[in-house]
Design goal:
CATH class of the largest domain: Alpha Beta
Strand content: 5-15%
Shape: globular
Length: 629
């Protein structure tokens, strides 16, 4: 599924509070009371709807309220409390259900709707807190209903993260989901003979797991998976439902997802250390004083996953997950940000985006991919970069061609499931025709009118080596090996080695060195040495006299700078490794890097051997690499 749309950050006062917090009064200019807001005609229609709803509620009071006395004995104030709550509850459901109809791309269409939805849920949450006793006595409010409201707010925060790529909102979603679990809001659901309520509980667990995965809270994930497994077993035993297979598949997917990392980092007591691969303050190598690089910044990224049989969870493959984290900073707590001095004064001022916006496209069709690509291209600000990450099965050319154009080398696969003609897949066609369900290099040519940074992880990545820079804008393609040594091929389901190098280069280095676990102290020592290697790689790039200027134009952005240095480290490591001996085992790039100054630089090779010595795996690398070519 496609996720997100780029948008300047919402004013923080419009977001709902935590469960334990208080609700700020919404700004007057955006007041959204249950009596209506906006212009007079809008207020009148809202008022009419409220009156109509009141009449319906009055008619149903005997059914709704749980009072033991006569209906006439119910105080008017309590009657109005129930009516107002029902109205807010109904309005919140309408707005929430409308979220799925919003455009999945574009800047302006969704923001005001999200704002109204946040407003109503803020009012609803505060209202049920203030009137809990009346709602318990007169409405029969159940704890699972409170949990549903909190779950919806958690979903709003999660989707706000997907729309903005601001990781702070993941912490807010986690706060709501965690409170639901701590307060056992869904604990009584299993006592009711209503399978649809149990499904709500199961879906809550699945959503909570996704948020915890994105926050690297693996200990919580493991606890949630165990609880979800017990809940699924109870659910299928009690109701004998047909969706048992689907829920068991959810368990299998998340279990495989959390075991995808090929190397474990262990504490002294053998507990697993959870490592984060988001950009930390000291993550990217600093630029030397006086270093001349471009001033471009990464603004948008399309992360596309279409690999057959790769581990996934919630339409997020391992490769997509790793690249997503490589393009984000460590999340900060939203509440702590709001309490910083000066935050109130600057709340209404434009703020610099902390993370590039991302679209997550899982197995998109060509039409979907092109639509979102065009939307990102259209909205790309000045002096900004669009990144395209393709993790997909390779599509190879069929038959012979007299030309060598941008559509003659194949590309990567797009989803063809929806494109069926007369029951037969379109790809069963004349061999002289080009593959329709393929993103060819030529398909990206129109978007090279703006700075473009492409990463292709595929068995046919070299198709994108045949690029032509038609418009003179900065353009770089980082291309994965098209094949790996046989000893590593069986790991492909757990994610690509190339993407692992871009996300967590030390873990990838340990994996190709034959290590599956490491003590925390040694891990931290190696990470420190790897930071030194990255600094030296940065100097190699910027001091090179023959490097294409496109690399330097992207080097001013922290995310792109880190990806470039990791790419060179990956390429140098594979070229020195004894089992990576075929040309197709090595990454490539467009434009080509000067090998003797980068990936085959003796100074860098010495560093890699020193890292291998620290790990006692020097024997898997060639000592005199240049002489071996």
């Amino acid at each position: 599924m496609v996720r997100g749309a780029r948008q300047p950050q919402q004013p923080r006062s419009r977001l709902p509070p935590r469960l334990t917090g208080t609700v700020e009064k919404p700004p007057r200019k955006r007041r959204s009371s249950i009596r209506g807001s906006g212009d007079s005609s809008h207020s009148q229609s809202q008022g009419e709807r409220y009156q109509h709803f009141t009449e319906k509620t009055e008619f149903a009071l005997k059914e709704i309220m749980s009072s033991g006395g006569a209906e006439d004995d119910i105080p008017q104030g309590e009657r109005k409390t129930v009516t107002d709550f029902c109205y807010l509850l109904d309005k919140s459901k309408q707005l929430f259900n409308g979220l799925r109809d919003l455009p999945q791309y574009g800047q302006k269409q969704w923001q005001s709707y999200f704002g109204r939805t946040f407003d109503v849920y803020t009012k609803l949450w505060k209202f049920q807190q203030q009137h809990r006793q009346v709602l318990d006595n007169r409405y029969g409010l159940k704890r699972w209903q409170i949990g549903e409201i909190a779950s919806k707010i958690g979903q709003l925060y999660y989707h706000y993260y997907l729309r903005t790529s601001e990781t702070s909102y993941l912490n807010e979603a986690f706060s709501f989901y965690s409170a639901i679990r701590q307060r056992s809001y869904y604990s009584q659901v299993n006592k009711e003979d209503r399978p649809e309520l149990v499904v709500k509980k199961l879906r809550y667990y699945a959503r909570f797991i996704v948020v915890c995965l994105l926050l690297n809270k693996m200990d919580v994930v493991k606890d949630l998976v165990k609880e979800l497994s017990d809940e699924i077993e109870d659910y299928t035993h009690r109701f004998n439902t047909e969706d048992q297979v689907e829920w068991n598949l959810v368990l299998q997917e998340v279990a495989a997802f959390i075991e995808a990392d090929p190397v474990m980092v262990l504490n002294d007591d053998n507990t697993i250390v959870i490592t984060s691969n988001r950009l930390a303050e000291t993550g990217a190598p600093l630029l030397e004083q006086g270093m001349i690089v471009g001033q471009l910044s990464l603004a948008d990224a399309l992360i596309i996953g279409n690999c057959n049989n790769q581990v996934k969870f919630s339409e997020l493959t391992v490769d997509m997950f790793r690249m997503l984290q490589a393009l984000e900073r460590e999340p900060m707590n939203l509440a702590s940000q709001m309490n910083k001095p000066g935050m109130q004064e600057s709340a209404d001022k434009p703020t610099r985006r902390e993370n590039p916006h991302k679209y997550l496209l899982y197995k998109p069709t060509f039409s979907q991919l092109y639509t979102f690509l065009a939307a990102s291209f259209k909205e790309l600000p000045a002096n900004s970069v669009l990144l395209i990450y393709l993790s997909a099965t390779g599509v190879f050319p069929t038959g012979r061609s007299d030309s060598e154009g941008p559509y003659d080398f194949g590309g990567v696969l797009t989803n063809s499931n929806r494109d069926i003609i007369n029951g037969d897949a379109i790809h069963k066609r004349n061999q002289s025709h080009k593959e329709m369900h393929c993103l060819h290099p030529g398909d990206l040519y129109p978007f090279t009118r703006k700075p473009l940074f492409i990463i292709v992880d595929s068995s046919n990545s070299v198709a994108y080596k045949n690029f032509t820079n038609l418009f003179g804008q900065p353009l770089v393609c980082l291309l994965s090996p098209t094949a790996y040594p046989k000893a590593l091929q069986d790991q492909s389901q757990r994610g690509s080695l190339f993407t692992l190098f871009l996300n967590n280069p030390l873990m990838a280095f340990l994996f190709v060195s034959g290590l599956s676990s490491m003590r925390r102290g040694l891990w931290e020592k190696c990470q420190e040495y790897l930071r030194k290697i990255n600094r030296d790689i940065a100097q190699l790039l910027t001091h090179s006299r023959s490097i294409d200027q496109a690399f330097l134009q992207f080097f001013g952005d922290e995310f792109l700078r880190l990806l470039l240095t990791r790419f060179i480290f990956c390429s140098a490591t594979m070229r020195m490794h004894k089992i990576f001996r075929e040309t197709r085992n090595y990454p490539e790039s467009y434009p080509q890097l000067p090998r003797d100054e980068t990936v085959e630089n003796p100074h860098l090779q010495k560093h890699i051997l020193e890292l291998a010595s620290i790990l006692d795996v020097r024997n898997v690398f060639f000592e005199n690499t240049i002489d071996d070519y």
